[in-house]
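Entry type: protein chain
Record version: 2
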Amino acid sequence: MQRTQNIRISEQMLRQAAPVITLLVMMVFVGIITPEFLTIDSMIVLATSTATLFVLAAGATFVIMLGGIDLSIQAIASMCSVVLALTLPNLGYLAFILAIGAGLLAGTLSGLAHVRLRIPSFIATLAAGGVWAGVALIISDARAIAISGAERDYLNWITGATLGIPHEVFIGALVLVVSVFLQRFTMFGRISTAIGAGEAATWSSGVRVNMYKVMAFALSGLMAGLAGVILAGRLSSGSPTLADEFLLPAIAAVIVGGTALTGGVGSVWRTLIGALTISVIRLGMTFIGVDIFAQQIIFGVMLMIAVAITIDRSKIPIVK
């Protein structure tokens, strides 16, 4: 009996350490193939490219911790980039608040659709993603909106650098600190974990589960809006398809980091490790010369493997 318990503890420790081990192995592997990857400049590029992906994935982490999923984050990010590009000339810095607020509203509406209409989260957010993508296409007239001239000065808090470190890295670090605080030191974080671990028991405890679910989706939308703003700043434009390629890497970052798709297990710290792993693989494939379409295949395979490892099959004894 004791031996069985020790084996389970060892397996749990190995599972928790697996994301970090994977990240280190991938960095060493890519570094051996292309030594220039391990230079300081390359590490700064790695951190910068990870920042936006992490912001997008951090928001999705709160939903996945509940046992749900948000498939609308890329559409929300794209829509918010368009909102920013359209309103920046007239509103200045208020345009950033409007764009991120649009993401918050979109996420809240997705959450309400999920809990009020009792629709599975993947269907609700998939449909909502189509709505937000359509909104982005309509308000942008199905074209990219360039941010040029004096308006670019408003983007310095995104595109600039301090002590040689791009501001995107600082934004990602701030998101990490706030997210960890929310998850570890607030009622929202503790109850979200409880809902993911056992929703029925949480309901029985008198917790307003639906309210916390909507809050998680709202936070996911807000983070997606921020990611859209960062992308618009980086590319000096807003586009209805700007973040279309980010959905699979963002979800993969959460799962590869060790957050269980069935909820209740995981953290934003793990998502950071997952996002770094995805970025290392992406940059490594770029250094090696792997085609961008082949990269999507690799991300898809990684996601399937990660889900197979992290999923709690005790919650879904029958997989349909």
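Comment: The longest helix spans residues 2-33.
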